[in-house]
Each structure stands twice: as structure tokens, then as C-alpha cells.
Amino acid sequence: MNARHQNIMQHVNLKRRVSVSELSQLCGVSEVTIRQDLTLLEQRSYLKRAHGFALAIESDDLDTRMMSNFALKQKLAQFAASLVEDGETIFIESGSSNALLARYLAEHKKVTLITVSSYIAHLLKESECEVILLGGMYQKKSETMVGPLTRMCIQQVNFSKAFIGIDGYLPENGFTGRDMMRADVVNAVLAKGMENIIITDSSKFGKINSNPLGTVNAFSRVITDDGLTQDFADSLVQQGITVNTVVEG
Fold it and tell me: Is residue 187 a contact partner of residue 166, using CB atoms and an 8 Å limit?
């Protein structure tokens, strides 16, 4: 996704409905070019088109969460993707930032993606990327596989890096998640001892949830935005974690 596409997405998500002529003026290109952009973005499930307009996706599921703070999540995904080399096999958990990471990798790198997210697998159905969707009990709301069968599947696959989402962090409690079943899957991934990387926005820091996600030293890196406070950044570094922040806005 180029800078003009990101500009279009930011504007559409803000206003929910934007005319082609307005986008043309905003981006300084012809309406023909904007229509081509919208066709591409619609094909990739970023927005919907109506006659003469671009529409934000209206949904209560992951589509909506992926479009919330879209520009920031796209930056987080692009930085995370820069850590991945062609030929790697990568595990990507569920969540909106991870979904954007999966799509960016599928478009720019030659990798194999392992995931427990049926949403991510569906998102990549038109890509040439090889996708391995692990089995298990289908958690409908999160569109994720969970449970004992999923843990068994994780034990049977190999990967070099895992990208994980979190719901909370406090120095005294470590990383935590809201959902017990999804936390169980994350802990199965962490038990393999691979390079585990957290990708999340800074709003999750300072919160605590009931389900621990491994121990802090199970993670090697946190990718977040520059809203992360210095106290939390220092705490992570003191615990041996590399902290990478991207500038929001």
C-alpha cells in the first residue's frame, strides 16, 4: 500500500463516505486514478465502493477493528515486516494489527505464514503466499482456532518468528490477555522457544487482564507506537526486551 492509498484510507475511515471527486482533490490526482485506487482497495477488503463514492466497511467484527487507527497499525505492520526475510516461516496470531502484518508480508515477501486465525487465512485467499491454518475449536467471535487440538498442531509445526498480540502489560505482572482460550494458544507458541515479537498499540500498557502470557523473558521484542511512556519502555528494556516505536500520525 503506497502513501496515496494510506491517505485515502485515513480519509474514508474518518468520514465514512467520501466522493471520488473529493479524494481526487485531496490526493492531487485524476478521478480515473482514484477509481483505480478504490478498485484495488476494495479487492483487498479495505473499503467498499458505491457509484461515485468510497465507503468505510461497516461491521462489528475484525474488519472494523482493523480499520480503527488504520494508519498507525499499518506502520506497525510495515516495521514488523522489515524484520522478516524471504524464505522464512512465520507464525502470526490473531488480531487486527497482525492481520495487517500478514497481508503486508503476503504482498511484499516470499514467506510461509502459519496462523490460528481463519480471518487472516481468508484475507490472504487471493495472494500467492503459502498459508497454513491450524485446526482446533472455532471461536466464532474472534474467528480463531483454540483448544487442545490447536495446541497439538502448534507442537507439530516449526517457524522462526512468532508475532503475538497482547491486551495488557504491567511491570509486576508481565503481559496478559483477556481471553483464556486464546492465551492458552499463545502460551503453546511461547513454549516452543522461538523468537517471539509483540505487536500492539501503546494503549495496552498500564492495563492488566486475568490470563498471563508466558513470562516476560519469553519475548524478545515489542513493536508499538510512540505513545509508550518512558517508564514502561525502561521497564521492558530492563527485562531484556528490545523496544521499537513508530511515530503515530
Answer: no
